[in-house]
Structure formats: C-alpha cells, structure tokens
Write a structure and sequence with these properties.
about 300 residues; Rossmann fold; globular
Length: about 300
C-alpha cells in the first residue's frame, strides 16, 4: 500500500460504527481475535466504505443502488496517490485537472482526488442513469465546481466525443472492465467465494457491479487497446494517460502498441494491497521539452 494511504492500519471499527451505526450489526470478532466484518457481504462492505468516506474525507452523502459497483476505498486511494507521485515533478499544485474514464455511480476517484489533493475532475460515463446518481452525490456534497460529468454517448468510443479541443488534462485515470461477458464475471466471483469458504451456489459479488462496470466486448485487452489508440488522437490534450491493468500479461502488448502510436515514455507503476498485486500503466506523447511547459 502507498506510504501516504490513510488506511494502512487495521480499521477502527469502534469509531467507524459511531459514524455509521448500521455497520455495527456486521462487526464481529474472528477466530484470531481480530475485530472485522464479513468482506463477502456486499451490504457490510458498502457500509464500511460509507463510514470511511464520512470519517476521513467528510463525504456525508454517498448513496447509490446496491446493484452498482461498490469500490474498496483503500485500493482506489492508492491509485490516486501513485498518480500524485507521477505528477509531483511538475509542481502543478492546484492546477491539476484529471479525466476519470468510467467514473461509475459512486464517482469515487473524483471524490478522493479532490479531498486528498484538491484536484478538479472531468468524469465520464456511458449510462445516463449512472450519471444522474453520480451528479446527486456531487451536488449533495457541494462539489459541483470541482467535478464535471460528461456522457459518452457512443459505447464504442472512450475519448472521442469526450475530450474537447481546449481541454488540457494533467492526467487521465481508468479502471477498465475486467471481463468479456457475464459468464466470465460469475466464474471469477465463484472462485473468489470458494477461496473465502463461502457458499457459492448462487454467487453474489461482494463489491456488486452492473454489466457496464464489469465487462466489455473483447474484455480488458480490447478496452485497453481501444483506449491506447484513442489517446493517440488527443496527444496534446493530456500530459499523462494512465490505466489500471489487471492482467500483467497485457503490459508487453500495451508497450509495443504505444511505441507504434508514438508515445515518448511508458511507465509501469506496481501497486500492492496485502496479497493483491496490480499495476498502473502510464504513457505520454509529450517530449521532454514539451513536458517542461507544464512545470511551474
């Protein structure tokens, strides 16, 4: 976990249940004597995340349907901190605007990025209903001047129809769909629940998730290579394009494609939360001299 992540220590469930009393019914002491919750229970996970947001980030309103993906706060925060490390040499301070691709109903990256670093965001979605839910979260927390939502009306595109000629993003971020279809998502959930020694006859994802959030035709590889190609169409509109990459085997093909597309630098940033290892791939089309123009 990143050294600046607030959630490196065990959760203080006594304090968290005072903030969100409903969480208390899901807290118990396990066989090792540790206070915890059942992380396979979607309701428990959602209440825990609400408590973390309210306690540490003053996010008082975070409501969305149970069907939508409920992101784990510590992991999402790690991406934010690593992005800050990437941008730190440019000394941008409060001049950072980030493009969040596929923000989801929870709008989690913009919320955390604004609260931790005072960044502004443009956040995109392909689902109008999801955008309405995210907009309510933004409005209720009085963040409309910091977070702008944009609808991607063409599901086959990622950046086309989103990025405007006058846009100048310090970075983009994305947590792409992992699966090719619903069956692949169900099989992955079944394996996870089996590992947790849970009944997996009717698997339920502990973080939930709708079709648009979990799968994409062609899977993660197809999404990422579409993203890479479209980023090359907007080379000067974003200093650093980035994405989480779940499958480490995709990194080499991404590096090869980016070289062909004219990227001047490609970085692979490793992240680890407990036993889970993931990575962020970052690329830029700016030369060293062009990058200097971003520095204060």
């Amino acid at each position: 976990m990143h050294k600046n992540n607030k959630h490196q220590k065990d959760y203080d469930f006594k304090a968290l249940t005072q903030i969100i009393p409903e969480l208390k019914e899901f807290v118990f002491t396990n066989k090792y004597g540790s206070t915890t919750i059942d992380f396979a229970n979607p309701k428990a996970v959602k209440l825990l995340n609400k408590a973390l947001l309210k306690t540490y980030y003053a996010i008082d309103y975070w409501e969305f349907p149970d069907a939508n993906l409920c992101p784990p706060i510590p992991g999402r925060l790690d991406y934010i901190h690593h992005l800050a490390d990437l941008l730190n040499p440019y000394k941008l301070k409060n001049r950072v605007t980030v493009l969040d691709i596929g923000t989801g109903a929870t709008c989690i990256y913009p919320l955390l990025g604004f609260k931790e670093y005072n960044w502004k965001f443009v956040a995109t979605e392909i689902d109008t209903q999801v955008l309405k839910i995210a907009q309510t979260i933004i409005d209720e927390n009085k963040l409309s001047t910091a977070i702008e939502l944009r609808l991607q009306s063409n599901k086959s595109h990622i950046l086309k129809g989103i990025i405007k000629p006058t846009d100048a993003f310090a970075a983009s971020m994305c947590n792409p769909p992992f699966y090719k279809n619903e069956q692949e998502a169900i099989e992955a959930t079944t394996r996870k629940l089996k590992g947790l020694n849970k009944n997996h006859t009717n698997p339920v994802r502990n973080f939930s998730g709708t079709a648009n959030e979990l799968w994409y035709e062609g899977g993660e590889k197809a999404f990422l290579h579409n993203y890479l190609y479209e980023s090359s169409l907007f080379k000067t509109n974003c200093l650093w394009y980035t994405s989480l990459v779940s499958n480490k085997d995709l990194v080499k093909s991404m590096q090869k494609s980016l070289k062909k597309l004219g990227a001047t630098q490609v970085k692979v940033i490793n992240m680890q939360q407990g036993n889970k290892v993931s990575r962020v791939v970052a690329w830029t089309f700016f030369t060293t001299e062009q990058q200097k123009q971003w520095s204060s």
